[in-house]
Amino acid sequence: MADDFTYLTHEPTGPLGRYVAGIWYARGRLRAPAERIAPTGSAVLGLVLGAPIAQVARNGHGDGHVARTGFLLGPDDQPMLNRPLGETWCVGVVATPVGCATAFGVDPRALRGRLVGAEPWAAVRRELLGLDEPADMIAAVEETLRESVAVHEPALPRCTDAVEAAVAALVADPGRPVADVARALHLSHAHLDRGFRRVVGLSPGTFARVTRMRDLLASLDTGRPVGWGQVAAERGWYDQAHLIRHFRRHTGTTPAAYVAAYRAVYGDAPTEPGFAPVVNPVQDPVGGVA
Q1: Could you give the maximum distance between any two Cα atoms of the chain, in Å?
Q2: In which element (H, E) is residue 147 found?
Q3: Residue 233 and residue 131: Cα distance in Å, rounded?
Q4: pLDDT, tens digit (0-9, with 9 covering 90-100), for 27-67
Q5: Which of 15, 104, 111, 52 is nearest to 289 (CA)?
């Protein structure tokens, strides 16, 4: 992030924490003209309060959208290309893997790999524009989410508890075989797969790959040389080539290019993992969004 970029996060507690992983506030100008935002394994809502943001899902091959008031990004295993058309000013929500339907009122299966507008949240956006302090904006969004949960929680699928337990098992050990997780929950592999797709919007195997890659990105020190062969061996990939394939799908670029982009744009400054700067305009299809 740039030195004049404000990025604040809040993790809800209590019952809301089951469905909402975090509420965030972002304002400022990026140092790079665009960025690739790695997937979270869940749905993300953004309410745009400032300049529009040009976006393309699925690493430039999916839905194109100019977010003038907001966006809703579905669960995926590929990055979103993101180009602010001015100063970024946005308040957003990251759902938990099981939280899309309850927090946002949308079936995650319909959002898989999709990028759509946030029109149902227009009233909340208008409320935010009348507030001055980021903390007050976050609190207003949190209250709206509590209301949404009260409406949608009674309609949770019966399999939600089992899927939530599977999510916890895969977050704790992303390399654990899905069949082993299913056996521990006294479910067939097929039963777990169906329930997982219904509640999370991804297959359990895809979710595990996203989780493993998120763990890797969070552990990287982009200011130091990285031995990718050693990383692959230590973190359970078959070899370096296997790691590179998964890394490219998750971030839209190779491991070496990812680290080089961070160094070129941010140097040694602290950064958030998974927001890879796009430093080569030739590789930036976001500019084509109208």
Answers
A1: 53
A2: helix 134-152
A3: 50
A4: 999 899 999 999 999 999 999 999 999 999 999 999 999 99
A5: 52
DSSP state of 189: H
Give the long-range contacts of residues 225-232, CB within 8 A, separation 24 or more: 226/255, 226/259, 228/255, 228/256
pTM above 0.90, yes or no: yes
- pLDDT under 50 in the chain at which residues? 282, 289-290
CB of 88 closer than 8 Å to CB of 29:
yes
DSSP category for residue 51: S
Fold of 6-155: Jelly Rolls (2.60.120)
Distance CA(4)–CA(27), nearest Å, equals: 8
135 vs 8, 25, 148, 236, CA distance in Å? Answer: 9, 9, 20, 40
Reading the block at residue 219, the tokens are 């552990």
Tracing tokens 């909340």 back to the chain, one arrives at: 124
CATH code that applies to domain 160-283: 1.10.10.60
Which whole-number Å values give the CA distances from 195 to 82, 95, 159, 199, in the listed order? 31, 18, 6, 6
Could you tell me the two tokens for 268? 């040694």
- What is the reported pLDDT for 285? 53
Q: Where are the domains of the chain?
A: 6-155, 160-283
Residue 198 identity: R
Cβ atoms 145, 16 nearer than 8 A: yes
pLDDT 10s digits, 119-151:
999 999 999 999 999 999 999 999 999 999 999
